[in-house]
Amino acid sequence: MLEKINGPKDIKALSWEEMDVLGQEIRQFLIEKISATGGHLASNLGVVELTMAIYRTFDLPEDKVIWDVGHQAYTHKILSGRKDFDDLRQFGGISGFPKRAESPCDSFNTGHSSTSISAGLGMALGRDLRGEDYHVISIIGDGALTGGMAYEALNNAAELKKNFIIILNDNEMSITRNVGGMSSYLDHIRMAAPYTELKMGVTNALKKIPKVGDGMVDALHKTKSSIKQLVIPGMLFENMGLTYLGPVDGHDMRQLGKVLQEAKRKQGPVLIHVLTEKGRGYEPAMRHPARFHGAAPYEVETGLPKSNGNPSYTDIFSTVMRKFGDREPDV
């Protein structure tokens, strides 16, 4: 399947069964290529299905996709026609981050966190000022969502009310496990019964009531406040003025496709809460996601680093700092 992907529109011709095979091939491709060059592995393995669903639902490069931090954009690069990973992050090779000079599918240069919502909102505002018509999608991780710039952008998105899609890629980690109020809030949402299942169960039950069922469903849809506050996760975002969709399984492409299509139909800013698993499909990265956040070259079979006999910069820095600490009480 991977041989059929040479540009951003190619994935649209695949069946769901072929999409499943492509997802497996992309994971194997990433595991093998990054084992030789090093790079960000765990985060990229976690967004394979999400990226494929985005490409199937939207039209790149006409639609604008902005990746926060950008180290999880490897599948995005593959699907846009950049499959030469032999020189990933090497001089003259492809960048480990989105880079506008590299492809029209890279709509924003990234390399640090918490910027994607601000950038996407700016693009959505510029689009409307120019009278243009395309979708803007910002993907932000739960780690990057703890940055203050992201909150300012959410606040402005709710105020400007532009058509704009935010995807929260929630894998419970940035480089290591997240802490703080937003992390605790997302923990609560993850543990709650998924809203989509609850909503569908209630809707289907009501529709079975003769004569009055459809009317009750319509009335339920018009109720925005009291019951939602009690049972629906994501009310923090709803109360800010964003439509919240989710949580959704980030490894179910069919479900992702349905939610993305729903988001396209909504007016105003939409936040889709996607649950993914960092390192998915590669046992060493699932066991040690922090170690495979930014991995040195490794042995595919074991996940152990390849040794060239030379200490890394981090090895030397940490050794010297520990020696300083032993000698100097103030360090």
Labels describing this entry:
single chain; 331 residues; alpha/beta; five-stranded parallel beta sheet
What does this structure look like?
The chain is of the alpha/beta class and 331 residues long. The chain is built from 14 helices and five strands. The protein has helices spanning 16-37, 42-46, 48-57, 74-79, 116-130, 148-160, 181-191, 195-207, 213-222, 226-231, 235-240, 253-265, 283-287, 313-327; strands at 64-67, 136-141, 164-170, 243-249, 269-275. It has a five-stranded parallel beta sheet with strand order 1-2-3-5-4, sandwiched between helices. Helix 3 (48-57) crosses helix 12 (253-265), helix 5 (116-130) runs parallel beside helix 6 (148-160) and helix 8 packs antiparallel against helix 9. The chain starts with 15 loop residues before the first helix and ends with a helix. 39% of the residues are buried. The model has no long low-confidence stretch (mean pLDDT 86).
